[in-house]
């Protein structure tokens, strides 16, 4: 059974900061809409306060999380221990999308250091925080972060990345608006 906590304490912070990967899940309001879950890595997660977190949203093939957050704000972030003692931490809350045009984006961006091109920063105000055993999670050995995203973005270049986002990230698979702040500029 999950243990519910009031906030991210030092023990949970240490666990989160030791993980190399996390997952985010969101869903549209429509019952026939597609639920989305995405794995994240690349040292993209930060704890802003005991009740607020943020992560970098890199340019990718879809923009489901952005679309769902813009529609309803619901988000859950999950960390699993793939090494060491078993544990799962889930952070539920109200998320927000910060585009590169936002003042808060510019204020938070330096907290993350260098990264592949960033589409947005996602913030989450914690409404429910829990941890559970994770006994069923298999053990894996961490080998390192992949360079594919960084390599792909470098090959494309800034103008082509803007065009890619305008074409591929404007709508979710369910037709919900997602990335609308990128201006399409042909390379």
Provide a descriptive summary of the structure in words.
By secondary structure, the protein is α+β, with helices and mostly antiparallel strands. The chain has a single domain, classed as Pnp Oxidase, Chain A, CATH 2.30.110. It has five helices and eight strands, in the order βαββββαββαβαα. The chain has helices at 10-17, 64-71, 103-108, 148-156, 158-168; strands at 3-5, 22-26, 36-40, 45-49, 52-58, 74-80, 88-98, 118-132. Strands 1, 2, 3, 4, 5, 6, 7 and 8 form an eight-stranded antiparallel β-sheet that branches. A hairpin with a 7-residue loop joins β6 (74-80) and β7 (88-98). It is globular and about 45 Å long. 25% of the residues are buried.
Provide tags for this entry:
187 residues; alpha+beta; 5 helices; 8 strands; 31% strand
What would a concise description of this structure say?
Helices cover 22% and strands 31% of the residues. The protein is α+β, with helices and mostly antiparallel strands. The protein has a single domain (3-168), classed as Electron Transport, Fmn-binding Protein, Chain A (Pnp Oxidase, Chain A).
Can you lay out the helices and strands and say which pair or pack?
Elements: E1 3-5, H1 10-17, E2 22-26, E3 36-40, E4 45-49, E5 52-58, H2 64-71, E6 74-80, E7 88-98, H3 103-108, E8 118-132, H4 148-156, H5 158-168
Antiparallel strand pairs: 1-8, 2-3, 2-6, 4-5, 5-8, 6-7, 7-8
**Total separate domains:** 1
Radius of gyration: 17 Å
CATH architecture: Roll
How is the biggest beta sheet arranged? 8 strands, antiparallel
Number of strands: 8
- The overall pLDDT average reads 95
First-to-last CA distance: 53 Å
Shape: globular
The helix/strand series, from N terminus to C terminus, equals: EHEEEEHEEHEHH
Helix content: 10-25%
CATH-assigned homologous superfamily: Electron Transport, Fmn-binding Protein, Chain A
Structural class: alpha+beta
Strand content: 25-35%
Number of helices: 5
Unreliable sequence segments:
none
* CATH top-level class: Mainly Beta
CATH fold call: Pnp Oxidase, Chain A
């Amino acid at each position: 059974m999950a243990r519910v906590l009031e906030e991210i304490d030092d023990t949970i912070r240490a666990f989160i900061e030791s993980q190399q990967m996390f997952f985010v899940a969101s869903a549209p309001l429509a019952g026939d809409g597609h639920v989305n879950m995405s794995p994240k890595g690349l040292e993209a997660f930060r704890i802003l306060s005991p009740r607020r977190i943020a992560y970098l949203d890199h340019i990718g093939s879809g923009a489901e999380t952005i679309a769902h957050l813009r529609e309803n704000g619901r988000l859950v972030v999950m960390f699993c221990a793939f090494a060491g003692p078993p544990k799962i931490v889930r952070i539920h809350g109200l998320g927000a999308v910060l585009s590169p045009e936002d003042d808060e984006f510019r204020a938070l961006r330096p907290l993350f250091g260098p990264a592949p091109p960033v589409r947005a920063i996602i913030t989450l105000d914690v409404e429910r925080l829990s941890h559970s055993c994770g006994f069923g999670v298999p053990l894996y050995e961490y080998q390192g972060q992949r360079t594919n995203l960084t390599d792909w973005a470098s090959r494309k270049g800034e103008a082509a990345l803007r065009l890619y986002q305008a074409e591929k990230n404007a709508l979710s698979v369910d037709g919900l608006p997602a990335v609308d702040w990128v201006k399409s500029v042909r390379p």
